[in-house]
Design brief:
By secondary structure, this protein is of the alpha+beta class. The chain has a domain at 66-221: Jelly Rolls, CATH 2.60.120. It is 33% helix and 27% strand. It is built from nine helices and nine strands. The chain has helices at 5-26, 42-45, 51-54, 66-69, 81-87, 135-145, 153-159, 202-207, 209-218, and strands at 91-92, 99-101, 108-116, 119-129, 161-165, 168-176, 180-189, 192-201, 220-221. The strands form two sheets. Strands 2-3-4-8-7-6-5 form a seven-stranded antiparallel β-sheet. A two-stranded antiparallel ribbon has the order 1-9. The longest helix is centred in the first third of the chain and has 22 residues, at 5-26. The radius of gyration is 45 Å and the shape is rod-shaped.
Length: 226
């Protein structure tokens, strides 16, 4: 068959198109994947503090301030107590050997310090109007200070001893706790009550009991009633 020139050109063009389609069909499609990072807020990008080190850690070993530990066992300063202490009589006494006189302050008529090889103790003299709730209430409050159980009136009477302080009759008590102990002389005095109290390490308190007794015997309260 004889083809005209135009037909030949058409045929060649058709073959070229078929060949192009065949070549393009043989190629596998190329899959291109893109990794798009997730957007992060500024707070996520910033370094976050380590809460374990930034925040205070509390445990059973954490110690509270002394005023928190004794808040329920110390004598509350009620209205009129400071005025009564300021208006109360002064005292004189002999300072036992080895004790230090820190002077009076606030409602305390005396502040004495005891330090020895066994530990330390504090001796205070205070005066309050009235009976301040009675001996049993005060003794049980002191029991709380040295980790002792509260006691009954009968138990209190069994450990009470009479004592004379500044020519007036009073009561002497010993309270021994597992770590701390107390020696105290309680003196009713013309409508008020005086407390002469040693509180400290048990070994120090025991070693200074004779000195405490001598101190109490030396106390002289100015008495305008006689």
């Amino acid at each position: 068959m004889l083809l005209s020139k135009s037909n030949k050109q058409s045929t060649l063009l058709m073959y070229a198109l078929i060949l192009l389609l065949l070549l393009s069909g043989c190629k596998d499609p190329v899959v291109v994947s893109y990794l798009i990072p997730k957007s992060s807020s500024p707070t996520n990008l910033q370094a976050m503090p380590d809460e374990r080190t930034e925040k205070p850690v509390f445990s059973q070993e954490s110690k509270l301030p002394t005023d928190k530990l004794t808040a329920k066992t110390e004598m509350p300063l009620l209205p009129g107590m400071q005025e009564s202490a300021d208006a109360g009589p002064d005292i004189v006494f002999s300072l036992p050997e080895g004790w230090t006189d820190a002077g009076s302050s606030g409602i305390r008529k005396a502040n004495l310090r005891v330090n020895d090889a066994n530990g330390s103790a504090e001796v205070t003299a205070l005066s309050f109007p009235g009976d301040v709730g009675g001996n049993l209430a005060n003794v049980n409050r002191w029991c709380g200070q040295i980790e002792l159980n509260t006691m009954s009136q009968d138990q209190l009477e069994s450990i009470s001893e009479p004592i004379t302080i500044s020519h007036h009759g009073g009561t002497y008590l010993r309270l021994q706790g597992p770590q701390k102990s107390i020696l105290v002389g309680i003196l009713p005095f013309h409508g008020s009550t005086w407390f002469f109290k040693m509180l400290g390490d048990t070994a120090t308190v025991q070693a200074n009991e004779l000195a405490m007794e001598n101190f109490l015997q030396s106390v002289n309260i100015h008495d305008s009633h006689h």
